[in-house]
Amino acid sequence: MRSVQKVNQGCAYTSWPYIPAVPVYRDYTMRPSGRELSQMRPVSIETNVTKHAEGSCMIKMGDTHVLCTATIEDRVPPFIKGSGLGWVTAEYGMLPRSTSSRMRREAAMGKQGGRTVEIQRLIGRALRAGVDRVALGERQITVDCDVIQADGGTRCASITGGWVALRLAVNKLMKAGDVISDPLISPVAAVSCGIYAGQAVLDLDYPEDSDAGVDGNFILRADGQLIEIQMSAEGATFSRDQMNQLLDLADKGVSELVELQLQATK
Questions:
Q1: Could you give the C-alpha distances from 43 to 104, 191, 203, in angstroms and in order?
Q2: Does the annotation flag 154 for ligand binding?
């Protein structure tokens, strides 16, 4: 991997307020994985990996592996009971050795952590954005996402694999005649993009994610409609032009993921 060369553009102390020099990156480094800037990690989706769940898959995005299962229940939360609307929700968790050191099970600590709650709410919101809840009928589908191995992008992999599990579960409802029309409006997928070593890159793995100046998660439907964008600057700010670059990368990544989703659920 070639080193990054920073070139400072001088310090103007003669004017006020003083604006620190902005480093300009030249002779850009390769990504730690050796991938091109717009290249995804290898992605695979294996379906029907569990015996009992109505829908299930194992999604692997590089070294991030997530088991996703979908469960159909003939009930809905109290706040929509009697409305005729269906509900899709999600739960998320990481196994103790999904990371480089063992973490305690949240059940052993007596409560879920804030990160877990935030991510599972995100997964639920994302999947519901692709569902016609009237067509689904008054039933609930719970998508469980269990991280077997983490190397960055676990929430994105969970959303992408979660939709596959949801699709397979809905297929069973349709085959049984329990729903009249397809309640899934569009595939939903997610990918991370960020600014690493001054470059806009697609699908960050952990070495990039932990060192990125800007990090974001992009959730889109297959028709290009945006569902949610989570962006933050961590040690560096970003311009509107860079934001547009990241959106373009996200479009590319999601289109590739949707193609894999559709192949997996034929």
A1: 28, 12, 11
A2: yes
**What's the Rg (C-alpha) of the chain?**
21
Q: Is 113 annotated as a binding residue?
A: no
Please report the domains of the chain, with CATH numbers, ordered by start residue. Answer: 43-265 (3.30.230.70)
115 assigned binding-site residue: yes
Over the chain (266 residues), the average pLDDT of each successive run of 10 is 33 36 45 95 98 98 98 96 97 93 84 90 98 98 98 97 98 96 98 95 95 95 96 89 96 98 97
- Match 């995100």 to its residue by tokens: 122
Please tell me what DSSP assigns to residue 51: S
Q: CA quadruple 93, 99, 105, 111: dihedral positive or negative?
A: negative
Output the pTM of the full model: 0.87
Residue 80 is given by DSSP the state: G
The per-residue pLDDT for range 1-52, each reduced to its tens digit, is 333 333 333 333 233 343 434 333 334 457 999 999 999 999 999 999 999 9
The type of residue at 69 is T
153 is in an annotated binding site: yes
* Whole-number Å distance between alpha carbons of 227 and 221: 7
How many residues make up the chain in this entry? 266
Determine the distance from the C-alpha atom of residue 52 to the mean position of all C-alpha atoms in its chain, rounded to a whole number. Answer: 25
Amino acid, res. 97: R
DSSP per-residue string spanning 128-178? HTTB-HHHH-S-EEEEEEEEEE-SS-HHHHHHHHHHHHHHHHHHHHHHTTS
230-234, long-range: CB < 8 A, 24+ apart:
230/122
Q: Are strands 87-94 and 140-149 parallel, antiparallel or unpaired?
A: parallel
Could you tell me if 54 and 72 are in contact, meaning their C-beta atoms sit under 8 angstroms apart?
yes
